[in-house]
Design goal:
alpha/beta, about 50% helix, three-stranded mixed sheet, about 375 residues, single chain
Length: about 375
């Protein structure tokens, strides 16, 4: 068991080093503040949706509150074979609030969302594309801040933050901490020049760069990854043109999954694309994180069967949670969640949840929007 103990501590040490590097990178990414620059950027906002009748009213309301000239953005809603009254909810919204249109998705691949975005881009009248999701809520200064950043730094692809609208239940609080860890890793990786991840609920890019990297070609057999694969292709070819916009005014809020099964399938969908990453750093980090979580799980069960020292397990967990806390604390200061509860129990439960998702994603199928993949 001495060898196993050494291996476990070595893995957690490596895990802590990687998380520490992300913590360092997070602090290197400077926060951007909008100014009073005159808006010059025209945006086409793309919203793929399928059976989102309960979520669309909030998104539509947030669009109506945008502090940006109405003639400088359009919204393209892409209906992916909805079976509810989602389309009626959109079309019944006051037309004077903003310019929008609803189009049907043209399926060409195994990825409905990639097809929806590609379909919309072909009809978008503006060069700057922004994607978000139907279960989101955007800040009133979202477009203004994006425009300010574009005028200041001339990027061609911008990743932004996403936070969860969580209530006080354990399910929601767990998701909030999970997404905070992903946001921290995203920002931290950009800070050390190893950006590999983003969220399609807050992602902007020009038609030019989309076309130059051939859009979703090469990964449209994978249902997920309309954001990550596009980002990694762009960074591989034009690293200086891909930026992370760290601004409170551009944080997009999203709704959490309503039950554990939906959450499991969502995280499994995200995990299933890891093996296809173009980013070597992304693959290595995913492997290190998996190994770190698996170490906590294995050592826990060995402790239950008196095959491993409880105090050694406790120390492993303490080291890991300390490293996680550093990154989560910085992320929380930026995203400002309404409340953070169940921190200890969430961090204890997370290795078991994450390991199960990772293993199941290698062999199992998942359901998404009423479809099986």
């Amino acid at each position: 068991m001495e060898i196993l103990t050494i291996v476990f501590f070595a893995i957690i040490a490596l895990y802590s080093i990687f998380i520490g590097s992300l913590f360092y990178g997070f602090k290197k990414v400077k926060t951007f503040e909008k100014s009073d620059l005159k808006p010059i950027t025209d945006f086409s906002i793309i919203v793929p949706f399928r059976n989102e009748a309960t979520n669309l009213p909030s998104l539509l309301h947030s669009f109506s509150q945008l502090n940006y000239p109405r003639n400088q953005f359009e919204i393209i809603f892409v209906n992916d074979a909805s079976e509810d009254n989602s389309v009626e909810i959109i079309t019944d919204f006051p037309v004077s609030s903003f310019a929008f249109k609803v189009i049907d998705n043209i399926r060409k691949s195994n990825s409905p969302k990639k097809d929806a975005i590609a379909t919309a881009i072909n009809q978008a009248k503006n060069d700057w594309i922004i994607t978000t999701d139907a279960d989101c809520f955007v800040d009133q200064n979202w477009l203004q801040t994006l425009d300010n950043y574009i005028q200041n730094y001339s990027p061609e692809m911008i990743a932004g933050a996403v936070s969860i609208l969580a209530d006080d239940t354990f399910l929601h609080q767990f998701q909030q901490l999970d997404l905070m860890s992903l946001q921290g890793a995203t920002i931290g990786s950009f800070g050390i020049g190893k950006g590999f991840m983003c969220n399609g609920a807050n992602f902007a890019y020009t038609k030019k760069i989309f076309q130059e990297i051939n859009g979703f070609d090469g990964n449209n057999k994978i249902a997920s990854g309309d954001d990550v694969f596009l980002l990694q292709k762009a960074i591989a070819k034009y690293p200086e043109k891909v930026h992370y916009l760290k601004s409170e005014d551009t944080i997009v809020l999203t709704k959490p999954a309503d039950d554990w099964k939906s959450l499991f399938f969502q995280r499994m969908r995200w995990a299933s694309k890891t093996s296809s990453y173009q980013s070597s750093f992304g693959k290595i980090l995913a492997l290190v994180v998996f190994a770190g979580n698996l170490t906590i799980v294995l050592s826990f069960f060995l402790t239950l069967f008196a095959s491993f020292s409880f105090w050694n397990w406790y120390l492993l967990f303490a080291i890991k949670i300390f490293a996680d806390f550093l990154l989560l604390y910085q992320t929380g200061r930026f995203t400002k969640p309404r409340a953070v509860k169940f921190f200890l129990i969430s961090n204890l439960f997370y290795p078991f949840f994450s390991t199960s998702v990772a293993i199941y994603s290698l062999f199992g199928k998942y359901q998404w929007k009423g479809r099986s993949f």
